[in-house]
Write a structure and sequence with these properties.
GO terms for molecular function: structural constituent of ribosome; zinc ion binding. This protein is mainly β. The protein has strands at residues 11-15, 22-26, 33-34, 41-46, 49-52, 55-60.
Length: 61
């Protein structure tokens, strides 16, 4: 029996498709997330989950 439920959202390590910059972001962003190096939009809020427009390298626990 699980007393404390696990969150359904995770942090993601992603890589920008334009400049190959890697950064960590939340899987359910509430605002537009841009690449810190080139400024390309890599995630947008969409319904209950985010729309990730970068390559997901790892799901962080």
């Amino acid at each position: 029996m699980e007393l404390i439920p696990r969150p359904k959202s995770r942090f993601l390590k992603v890589q920008c498709t334009d400049c190959n910059n890697q950064q960590v972001l939340f899987g359910c962003p509430s605002t537009v997330v841009k690449c810190t190096a080139c400024g390309k939009t890599i995630a947008e809020p969409k319904a209950s989950k985010g729309s990730i427009k970068a390559k997901i390298l790892e799901v962080l626990q």
